[in-house]
UniProtKB/TrEMBL annotation:
Presence of keyword DNA repair: yes
Native organism: Odoribacter splanchnicus (strain ATCC 29572 / DSM 20712 / CIP 104287 / JCM 15291 / NCTC 10825 / 1651/6)
Assigned GO CC terms: bacterial nucleoid
Protein name: DNA repair protein RecO
Gene3D superfamilies associated with the record: Nucleic acid-binding proteins
Domain DNA replication/recombination mediator RecO N-terminal: 4-74
Amino acid sequence: MEIVQGIILKTSPYSETQKIIRIYTKEKGYLSMISPSVVFKRKTKTVHLLQISEIEFFENEKSDLHKLRQISPIINLPELYFDIFKMNILLLWGEILNLILKNEGKNEELFDYLTHSIEYLNSTHNDIGNFNLYFLYRLAGFIGFRINTSSWQENYVFNINNGSFYPSDPATPYISGPNTAKIIYQLCTCPLAEIKAIPLNRQSRNILLDVILLFYSIHLNINFNIKSIQVIREVFA
């Protein structure tokens, strides 16, 4: 039996009494597990999206679907599961993380970043929308696609293909105007305490969300469930 620390990314039904649970773990990276019937019946109500937990499982050497024994929360996150705005951000993060981390192995810096971000989302009240974007833009650096903030200058635009900023040029494709590029730079460089001062409305947040999702799609060759993301962002943007 193995014991790891993990973050619950997604759960889906497997049978009437079992679930498939996708988890990003500190010790082994991304794992998929199938729950035994007893866990489904007794523990389902304690298995929350992005719950930070101690996980006991039996490793399957013949398959990448391991047998879950038990999940036990190790950090209390009461605010996340009673606030509709935070719950919808969790749904968005779970959808995104489950896709972009599928091939991610052990990465303790990434795990710590995820853990600290989930704890901060639980505790904050004033900067939820901006923090959602702050999290997504900085996440890129932990999986090898850091945005090149050193290339930014006033009135530059953001080139999504290499994550750098350039002077506007009609002959060169780019994804943003200079105002969006400036906010991307701020999200990637400002101290956490200052993100609530970045002036963003609903439309601006949706544009920035589209940019970062396209950035991940291009660099990781993945397709997001745009319909699900659209429903989620309409609630909290």
